[in-house]
Hints:
- This protein is mainly α.
- It has helices at about 1-100, 105-159.
- It has 2 helices and no strands.
- The chain is rod-shaped.
- The two termini are about 65 Å apart.
Amino acid sequence: xxxxxxxxxxTEKKLQEAQRMHLISERTTEELVKDVQTYxxxxxxxxxxxxxxxxxxxxxNDNVVExxxxxxxxxxxxxxxxxxxxxSHRLCDxxxxxxDQKPKHTAQLEAQLEDIQDETTRQxxxxxxxxxxxxxxxxxxLSEMEKALLHALIERDEV
Length: 159
């Protein structure tokens, strides 16, 4: 009878151990299910972030195209203003010749020449000021876009 009792005791111990292992495996399974759900939520969040960043990148690319177009327009405007300035200088040179050839009108023509030169200088100054302001604005926008793009790329690489 004693061997049966020993077998029964050993069987009970094995049953208890199996039950304990079953509980452990259930807890582990629950933890794994929670982990999987957490990772699914994180993945969904990362996908959303990626889409937002993709939209931002597209918007930044559109801004770059727009800024390139503005820069081209400004270059054209700059070229036209330089041509105007050269014409003004040529006109000034012609006035100087006329002044030298006609002493009677010298005072009058010199006054006109000074007015033209002053206006030309003011125009050049205004143009340079506008160009400098625009240049700073474009550089600032490009810097911000580069930072945003770099940030988006870093975050994308982290994903």
